[in-house]
Amino acid sequence: MPATLKIDFVSDVSCPWCIIGLNALEQAADRLKGEVALDLHFQPFELNPQMAPEGQDIGEHLQEKYGATPEQSQKNREAIAARGAALGFTFSMDKRSRIYNTFDAHRLLHWAEEKGLQPALKKALFKAYFTDGQDPSNYEVLVRVAGEVGLDVAEARALLASDRYADEVREREQFYLQNGIHSVPAIIINERHLIQGGQPVEVFEQALRQIAAQG
């Protein structure tokens, strides 16, 4: 029997390194098939909790937040696209020009966890934003993506129109902030071991093997 490792994957749907980290983690688990199985839970983290509803131009945002020049931002985008491609994910940088608020996407993900469809929704939201250049704060986008992964469209629409799960998402976000998580992805294994960032597959493979061996 493979050792089941609980993974709390703290991330945001607008974080490119989070999809890189997720794909690398899953490929590491594939290499350890028969030895290790993942019990994956996506936990909310907002990179930009104060982001206005209309979002912000990416270049402007990166310059304000990190002091990045257009040239630095371009180099970073190219590095991210190359890492993504090596892991089987397409970043369409030309289609993504704005950063958006992601709170409602996290409310939808909280609900999807109850329905057993959270990983599928998370990946579909990554694709919608990073590959297709769509707005993950837009209710029509969120409802459509929810339907595509098998969630009830009417229930998704009703959830978004209400404040359902707002308190639960904020509580989880605060829990991780208070426990020292200030950048993502943060991958917490069995509630004890922390791996941060979009690490290479080999790093995750070694960590999973070691933790599984500890029993």
Automatic annotation (TrEMBL):
Record PANTHER family: GLUTATHIONE S-TRANSFERASE KAPPA, THIOREDOXIN SUPERFAMILY PROTEIN
Name by which UniProt lists this protein: Disulfide bond formation protein DsbA
InterPro entries for this protein: DSBA-like_thioredoxin_dom (IPR001853), Thioredoxin-like_sf (IPR036249)
CDD domains documented for this protein: DsbA_FrnE
Domain of life of the organism encoding this protein: Bacteria
Domain DSBA-like thioredoxin: 7-208
Molecular function as annotated in GO: oxidoreductase activity
Biological source species: Acidovorax kalamii
Coiled coil: none
Alphabetized Pfam families for the sequence: DSBA (PF01323)
